[in-house]
TrEMBL record:
Membrane topology type: Multi-pass membrane protein
Localisation: Membrane
Top-level taxonomic group: Bacteria
InterPro entries linked: SLC26A/SulP_dom, SLC26A/SulP_fam, STAS_dom, STAS_dom_sf
Domain STAS: 447-532
PROSITE patterns in the cross-refs: STAS
Name listed for the protein in its UniProt record: SulP family inorganic anion transporter
Major localization class: membrane
Any Pfam family matching the protein: Sulfate_transp
Amino acid sequence: MVKNTPAHSADTATAPAVSYWQTIAKDAPAGLVVFLVALPLCLGISLASGAPLLSGIITGIVGGVLVSWVSGSQLSVSGPAAGLTAIMLTAISTLGSFEAVLAATVLAGVLQLVLGFLKAGIIGLYFPSSVIRGMLAAIGLILILKQIPHFFGADTDYFEDMDFLQFNGQNTFSAIVASTNAISWGSALIGLVSLVVLIIWDSKPVKSVPPLKLIPGALVVVAVSIGLNLLLMNGAPHLQVRAEHLVQLPAIGSFADLTRELAFPDWSALGRGRTYIVAFTIAIVASLETLLSVEAVDKLDPHKRHTPQNRELKAQGIGNIVSGLIGGLPLTAVIVRSSANIDAGGQTKVAAFIHGLLLLVSLLVLSSVLNLIPLSALAAVLLLVGFKLTKPALYRTQWQLGWEQFLPFFITVVAILFTDLLKGVCVGLAIGVFYILKANLNSAYYFHHEPSSQPNVLHVKLSEHVSFLNKASIITTMERFAPGTHVIIDGTDSAVIDYDVLEAIENFRLAAPERGIEVELRGIRQVEALAH
């Protein structure tokens, strides 16, 4: 028997085709773009989680500086995730303090390490492609819908809230409606100019100029938006972007100031059972989000490299241990920043590392400059990223592949849009599994009529592996056999026949005489043994 060997194991990474120094010209600008996208997201998720603002930045730094090198992924970016905000809010309330949650975060990291060594990452290989594409398309739609209020300067809450129901009582669509009644015209003007600049910068004429190709469009947008806001400040103060619609980075003047601001775990929390429940919840949700994200990133990777899932779980575990020890939020691989990385031309993990370094530097020396950036300009960057994730061509391609691919894809999109990432993916997986089961109903056997000299003889040939998933189809087929038929059930080529199937065959053999059916078994000794 020929043994199939997978092209990649769950622990084997695909090495980059070129050295890191050869791609630095693309990785450095991409790292800058990811930094510009990640900065407000890190701050916003901290606020949404009920944690100190600094904690989100610390998580982003750990994800960029540490996890990027421990991970086997070349393009994935790790940091605080919106999907964990509700868990963090509940955890802080349950355990009584952020410091107690830090202890649970460290413990969650240990659990992820254990999962990695137990090779639990293999589950990531079982996500159907249609569901992964649906997840990417849904995230693209959510990015577009969620950034509209910020684009208009009409939203003052945290920057990233990926769930349909928001903490401020709004939902995705009601927030958009509300934003149309509270437009900040200065922010809207800067957002519109930024979007136009990005579209022009992404056009072929600009990309055909080598020096311009090296400059990321997001950097141009940041410079233009700051300059335009300064002009409004002097020429039309009533249009100036208000402080709450600018990046708000904590003011830290030195590394010593940074260390004084850090929070540390309250180890006494390990004496309470609730801490372990919180740690287990963080570990499972963070691991699932990570596996989903790296699977999606691999599909977006132009070089089609494979991320070793078990190594990724270990990397995330190490990241969460370190993040928890120095006052950071739980981290995961995150698709929004990873998509921005790929869209900006990132080639290797150097881009994620540079983004982490820039987050660290920004805390120490750049806060005064970065706090001048209008959020509407960054919203424009994410609008374009979102559009590239959910292009109409993607929907058309899935439709052309047929219902078995389109329906799980579309239902995943809708489910994520109206719930959250994990719930939506679970719904999509359920639909995908339904079609997988349907496709496998008849894969375990085939039957045919014997030659014309034996007109009433049916030969049912079982395949090499017959699992319990095939039980329903086999029973349904046997129920259709007409009286007077001689049925040969042939398992001579079967290596494995599930007990449930054997039992069904035996029940059919025993009941067949009453139906006027003659049954002949070949190579199915286990069934015969069941009768005694």
